[in-house]
User: What shape does this take?
Amino acid sequence: MVTFARRMPRLLVAWVGLVLITTLAVAIDLRHGGELYARLWLAPDRVWRGEVWRLVTWIFVEGGPESLIFGCLAIYAFGGDLLEVWGERRFVRRLGGIALGTGVGTALVAPLVPGAAYHGYFGAGALGDALLVAWGLAFPTRQVRIWMVLPIDGRTLAVGLALVTGAGVLFYGLAPMLPWVIAGALAFASAGRPSRRRFRVVRGERPPPSGPYAPN
Assistant: This one.
């Protein structure tokens, strides 16, 4: 089962902190008539005009208080498990690659999808779903409770999220769901095989004997 009884790693603290600070900043700015939202979200047509910072900034903005709370909880609960098995470098490399790949992929594909080129994408939802998919594929038999009630395993969670994204495309069209489709596809593609453990050989030392005849 996923547990919340753990100390939060510094990397996740930094991630959650950026999401909180950026979301609160744009919310306050919006209430005062500012345009910070419009300057940070992923707008493919603006990216093609040279505003390349949007490929990164959009993933640190949530669209509302509910998504902000649940998004931060997901980073804490599921991100911690992935950090334990991947390590910080692999964690940053994989999720950073998915985040940047989603932004770049959306900007490249958007001109081919009606209405997507001038769509404004904001919210860490796409990357959050990719995080859950990555967790489900890394822990296919571990259980998690949906809405604190329904127990499902990691593999079912990953497949279920893919189906939910597909349903979103059917209901709303591809244009508003484009980052979710790309992020989910990258999460499945990057799952690959589990990494092999590396052992360091120390010269002049031998491992202690083991087995039923080993000395006490």
Observations:
- The two ends are 37 Å apart (CA to CA).
- Strands lie at 143-146, 150-153.
- Residues 45 and 214 are 69 Å apart (CA to CA).
- The chain has nine helices and two strands.
